[in-house]
Write a structure and sequence with these properties.
The structure is a homodimer. Chain A is of the alpha/beta class. Chain A folds into 2 domains: about 10-80, Orthogonal Bundle (Arc Repressor Mutant, subunit A), CATH 1.10.10; about 85-200, 3-Layer(aba) Sandwich (Rossmann fold). Chain A is about 45% helix and about 15% strand. The first copy, chain A, is built from 8 helices and 9 strands. Chain A has helices at about 10-30, 35-45, 50-55, 70-80, 95-105, 140-145, 160-170, 195-220; strands spanning about 35, 70, 85-90, 110-120, 130, 130-135, 150-155, 175-180, 190-195. In chain A, the strands form 2 sheets. A 7-stranded mixed beta sheet of chain A has the order 5-6-4-3-7-8-9. In chain A, helix 1 (about 10-30) runs antiparallel to helix 4 and helix 2 crosses helix 3. The radius of gyration of chain A is 21 Å and the shape is globular. Residues about 1-5 of chain A have low confidence and may be disordered. Chains A and B meet through helix 1, helix 5, strand 9 and helix 8 of A and helix 1, helix 5, strand 9 and helix 8 of B. Chain A binds a DNA duplex (30 and 30 nucleotides) through helix 3.
DNA sequence: GTGTAATCGAGAAAAATTTATCGATAAAAA
DNA sequence: TTTTTATCGATAAATTTTTCTCGATTACAC
């Protein structure tokens, strides 16, 4: 029972940190230099002690009565995630989802860059999408090795995902960001992060549904 | 302290359910008719009792020694989320992210459909993307009302998100699915679901980083 | 039939996470 | 200079979530 990559940082914290980061970037734009947890808490609807704890994981210390310097805080989060040096990645599946990921400008902020795309469809191979060339899938293993790429993005249909993952792993990929609605099995030492768009949608729809029901309920009670 | 939409179902459960759903769909394709929690647990790397508990929230009951009927289980999850009747939604921001969301075929499975897109850029207005027309943003409020659309998707740059959200809310939108890397403030009774792609990326990168460090550490110890 | 094995459901125990509390510290005001 | 106030950090309490345990149920083998 020691197999898992022993994440000593709570995952909820890990998920909140990028949110702080985006928020702080906005603050910086507005020209704010200093911010307190109380203030962040109001804007993000979180409890100040929790924010303090989360931020403490990045190794930063605040000053009583003052708070944190926005720039220092941003730097601290960047260092924590290693966003200052760029991670180059390969993407497989240049369909709609794949194209969107290639075209999405926002990743540069997080030190992430898709440097090549792969696909099987002859009509897509050879195209250039947002400056990223689409290569035949068969080449992925050798190119992974040659270019020492460690992160792979999967944006294929569900049925192709596992096979693609195995090709990536054979090429030495250590982290897989999976957008296909499928479960990927990977050996120990390879991290798979599943990104399921439906999850967020489901949560939204369910909350909406419950809200409506409670609304109806309230109306009926009020009669 | 009674303000929040009192989600009596644990959110982690809510986030796991779509995962079960996708997994079960795959099982069905392979022709499997019956499945036990033990089996699901092996494939999804989760504990059987937890799966049982999660599934129980959808109101289903399993049969000892047998498990669950895959089709019945799928139906139960569909009913739970209300995926059998289609939710129509408007999208704002027909950039890369917006186009991807419009083009993504996968949403139909979850009873979700983007029926129109809105943008401000004159060169984009009037285009048709995957059968979805792009209309001027100014029309969104009146069209929301006329077509009784209750869900809005925001795929604009961060700075435009709040303003767009307010237009949507003015038109009667009750649920906002936000892909812009910005915090949206909404009145009570409007649900905002933030979808931050960077979150998953950050978790992946951090796990990878920790894995590498522990690997290095191990190597050094072994010397 | 009867026994065995697999699985379920429900409730208890354990773990993780969130929330609250309290003393300490630093800036601003008196 | 002293008092007041806002905020921090650390610890403790409460809550939530996960994991475990156990008796009950059902199919299958003998």
């Amino acid at each position: 029972m020691i197999s898992k990559p022993e994440l000593s940082i709570p995952e909820p914290t890990l998920r909140r940190l990028p949110r702080y980061y985006n928020y702080l970037k906005e603050l910086l734009k507005v020209g704010r230099e200093i911010v307190s947890c109380t203030h962040i808490g109001k804007d993000l609807d979180l409890d100040p002690p929790q924010i303090r704890k989360d931020l403490a994981f990045t190794g930063i210390r605040g000053v009583p009565k003052v708070g944190y310097q926005v720039e220092v805080l941003l730097k601290s989060i960047e260092d924590f995630f290693g966003w200052n040096n760029i991670d180059e990645a390969f993407l497989v599946g240049a369909g709609n989802m794949g194209r969107a990921l290639i075209g999405y400008q926002g990743f540069s902020r997080y030190g992430f860059k898709i440097i090549a795309a792969f696909d099987n469809a002859p009509e897509i191979i050879g195209q250039t999408i947002n400056g990223v060339e689409v290569l035949p899938l068969s080449k992925i293993k050798s190119l992974c090795k040659r270019m020492n790429v460690k992160i792979g993005v999967i944006a294929t249909p569900a049925h192709a995902a596992q096979e693609v993952a195995e090709m990536m792993i054979a090429g030495g990929i250590r982290g897989i960001w999976n957008f296909a609605p499928a479960e990927i099995r990977a050996p120990e030492g390879v991290i798979v992060q599943n990104e399921n768009l439906a999850t967020g949608l489901a949560v939204l729809c369910k909350k909406l549904q419950m809200l409506q029901q409670s609304g109806k309920f309230r109306q009926e009670v009020e009669k």
